[in-house]
Structures
1.
Amino acid sequence: MPSAEETAVPQDRPVVAPTRQDEIAAAGSELIGGPAGRWAWHGSSRLTPVRVIALVAIGMFALGMAQKMPCYDWAWFRGATSQYTHACYSDIPHLYVGRGFADNLVPYFDRLNGDMQYLEYPVLTGLFMEVASWLTPGGSMQYREQMYWMVNAGMLMICAAVIAVCTARVHRRRPWDALLVALAPAFALTATINWDLLAVALTAAAMLMWSRSRPLAFGILIGLATAAKLYPVLLLCPLLFLCWRAGKFREYAIAVLGAAGAWLAVNLPVMLLAPQGWEKFYTFSQERGIDFGSFWLVITQRTGRPINIETVNTAATLLVALGCAGIGALAMMAPRRPRFAQLAFLVVAVFILTNKVYSPQYVLWLVPLAALARPRWRDFLVWQACEVMYFLGIWMYLAYTMSGDSHKGLPTEGYQLAIALHIAGTLYLCAMVVRDILLPERDGVRADGSDDPSGGVLDGAEDVHALGLTAGSPYGDEPPGDGPRVDWGAPPPDAEPAGRPSGAV
C-alpha cells in the first residue's frame, strides 16, 4: 500500500466534502450534525476519512451478518422454505458439506462423494474455501456448518474493509465517495451469500494500484482477481482503448503481462496436476443452463419455449463483444477521454446484464466501480433500491416454488418484475455514466478541473489517437489552470453561521 506521504492531499487541493455538492448527502448528514461549514472541525489526525469509512463498512457488514441470524440459528437446517422467507440464504454452509470440505476432500484433486464431479469454482476461490475449512473447529455437523459460515464471514469482513479502504484511497481528494460502498444496503445483504468479495477486494486493490501509476502491481492483482472470479479480466478491455487514446502502450503491455503471469502462477500447478478438476469451472460455466435473474429466464418463462444453451452462450458472448466494441468507440470518440472507473463500470455492467445467470451477490462486483464512476447519492440509491427489491424477490420466488400447494411467496410474474427492476436500475446508472462521458462538464469528479483521478498514467495525459478529435490536452479547449474551478472548501450560499456544530463530510 502507498505510504501516508504518497496519499497525502496537497494543502492547496482540499478534500472534497460531498455535503457541499450533493443534496442527498447534505440531507443525510443532518443525522451527524449537518453539512460541513466554514469553521467545521474535521476531527483528530487519528480519525481520518479512510478509517471512518473502514469502520462504517465493518459495521454495515456486521449488520448484514445479523440479518442472517434466523438461518444461522435454525433455518439452514430445518427445511428449505424458511431460509427463503427470512431472506437469509447463503451458499457457504451448504457447500461445506456439498463440496466435500466437511469430509476433508481436496478441491480439484478429489471427486465429490457419490459424484463424478469436482469443485466448480476458480482456483483462488477454492483455496479461500479450503483455508476456511482448515480453521473450522470440530463438533457436530450442524455446529461445523455454522462455524464454517462464521469463519468465512470473518475472512470476508476483511475483504470488505479492504474494498472500502482501497475505494477511499483511489481518488485522493474524494475519500468520502467510498461511503457509497460502506453504506450500500445491497452490499451488506449479499456479502456472505458466496465468496465474491475476494475477487472484488483484489479488483479494488488493482484499481488503487493503477491510480498510483503502478501498472505491474495492477496487472498482478487483476490476474489474481481473475483467478478468483472471471469478471475482473474484463477491465483490461476498456483500459486498452484508454491507453491507446493516450499513447500509453508500454504501461498497458506491462499490466497485461503482469495479469497473465499472476493468473498462470495460481492456475498452472492445478492445471498440470489436476487438469480435470481445474477445468470444471470453465466447463460448468459453458454447460450451465439459463438460471435465475437473467433476461433469458424471463424470455423462456414468458414464451414457454426453452432456448438451446449453445445458442444462449453464443448470443451472450456476441452481446458482450458488441458492448465492449461500443465502450471502445465511446472511449475513442468522447469529447474528453473518459475516466477509467467509468468504463470499468460499464464493461462489468454489460457482462452482468447479458449473462445467463444473475445471482444476487453479483451486485458486489459493481458497487465499488459505481462509487468511483458516478459518486452521486441519488442515482446510487435508486440503483441500490432496485437491487434490494431483486434480493427480496429471488428469495420470495424460491419460497413460492418450494412451498408446494400453499404457494407462500412471490409468483412467477412478480419475480419477472423483480428481474426487470434489477435490469432497469443497472441500465439507469449506466445511462448516467454515459451522459457524464458525453457531457464531461456535468461529471462531478471533474468539476474542479481534474482529469482522471483514478487514471494513474492516464491522468492529465494528452490525447494521441482520439478518433474524430484533434489530439491534444485532455482538459478540452481550456487547460485546467485557465478554466473555472469549483471551490469545494467554501461554504454553500445558505451555510449556517460560523460556529454551528457540523459533520466532517
2.
Amino acid sequence: MKNNIKSILGLACLAVFAIGCEDDFLDEQSTGKIINANQLVDGVLLNPTLGEGSVTGIYATMFTTETGGTTSQQDFGQKGYDIYGDMLSSDMALSVSTFGWYRSRITEMQAGVDFTQQENYQVWRYYFRIINQANLVIDGLGGNDFVPENEELRHILGQAFAMRAHSYFYLTQFMINDVEASWNSETLPIYIEPGFIGNPKSTTQEVYALMEDDLTKAISLLDGYARPSKTQVNQSVAQTILAYVLGSRRDRWDDVVTLTNNALANTTASAMEADDSVSGILGGFNDVASQGWMWGVDLNEDIALGLVSWWGQMDAYSYSYAAFGDNKSIDLALYDSMPADDVRRGQFQNDPEEDFLLQPLNKFYDSDRQLFGSSQIVKADYIYMRYEEPLLLNIEALANSGQEGLARTALFNFVSTRVTDASFVNALNGQALLDEIYKQTRLELWGEGKSYLAMKRNKATIVRGSNHLFAVGQPIPFNDERLTFEIPQQELQDNNNITTQN
C-alpha cells in the first residue's frame, strides 16, 4: 500500500515554497526567496521532479500540523477543517467531551460570532497559505495567462490552478453565510500573485469568476496527466471541484451534470462496495489504495503524524481523543433515519450497553483495530475525495435541473447498493426527491467533511439529535451567523483595506 513520500516533506520547503516554512505568512515579507520563472522552467526541464516537488509543497501543507498558524491540536491541515464542517453541520455530534476540544467554539458555535477566536484565524491562514503557495508556482511558471509548451509544466500549472480554486472554494463556504444572497457583496480579497499586500475585499461574484476560470484552465492543462500517486490533483478531481463550485451557486445545475458525468467517466476509481474489503464501506477508510478513493494521501512513518491529526481526533483504534473521552458520533436523528437493513448502520457502534456509542468504529479505524492503539499514524491514510462524491452530486444536479426521471433512476441504483429494497425511491419527486438525495449524501459521506457543503447547497435547516451536548432540538438554518467563520482579528489589524466583517 505504502508509497514512499519522504520527498514530500523534503521538498515542502523548497525556495519556491519558502512561505510554507515561515512563522507568519500574512505579512508581505514572509513570501521568502522566490526563484524567477526562467529558473523554475529551466530547472524543471533539466529535472522534472523539481516541478513536481514545487506543487508537492502544497499537498504537504494539506496534512501538516500548525499550518493554520496555531499550536492547537485541532490544527492539522485539510482534515481538521473537515471536522469543523462536519460538526457545524451537526451531522457529527461531540457526544462526550472530556478534554474540551471543539466544544465551546465549534459545537457551541461561539467562533462564528467572535472574530477573536483562533478558529477564524486558522481557517483564514490555512487557505490563504495554500493560495499563496499556488501563486508562487503560477508566477514561477510564467503567470496566470501563460500556457507552457512543455507537457510536464502544463500539468504542474494545472495542479496549482486547481489548488488555488480549491482553497478559495472552501473560503467561500466557511466565510460567507449565503453565497447567493452575498453575490454582489464584497466578501473576500483576491490574490493572484505571490505575497499579501493587503488587498480589499472583492465581491462574491468576482471570487466565483476566478475559481471557475482557474478550474477551467486546470481541467484543460491536466488533460492526459497520469499522476504518480493519488496525492496529486488530476483532471477528474479538478472536474469534481468545479462541480462543487458551480453547485454551491445553485443556478448552474446543467453544468454540474456535465462536469460530474465527465469526472465519473475520467476517473479510474469506482463505487465502494457494501462490505469490509479495502474498497468497501466497512473497510476502515484507511487505505489510499482503495478503489473508491479519487484523491488522498498515503501517510507513513516519514510524515510522523500522531495524536495531532484527524485520526488522533476521530479513531478509537488509534491513541486518540476519541478513545479516551472526546467522542465524535453520528447525530442520533440521522442514524435513526436509516432503514434497519441499511448496511451503513454497521459503520457505527450501536449497542447502548457498550462504550463508544454511535462512534464510527467500523467506518474509520487503524488497520490494527486495537483500541487505544498506536500513537503513530502509519497504517491509516487521509481521504480527500471518493467516487461517490461526483456520483451523488450528479444525482442532485439532475434533480435540480428538471431531469427527475434520470435522478430517480440513478438514486434508486445507488440506494440499492446500501439497502435491500430501494423501491421507495420510485415514488419520490419534487422536494421529497431532493430531500432524499440530501439525506443519502449525508449518510454516505458522514465524517468525510462534505456534510457542511451539502447543507449550504441545499439551504438546509439542521436540528440536532439528543446525543449533542448543546442546542438539542433547536432548528438552525444554514445561513445562521454562528455556522460561518469571521474574518479574523489579525487580518483586520494588518490589512487597512479590510475594516469590517462580511
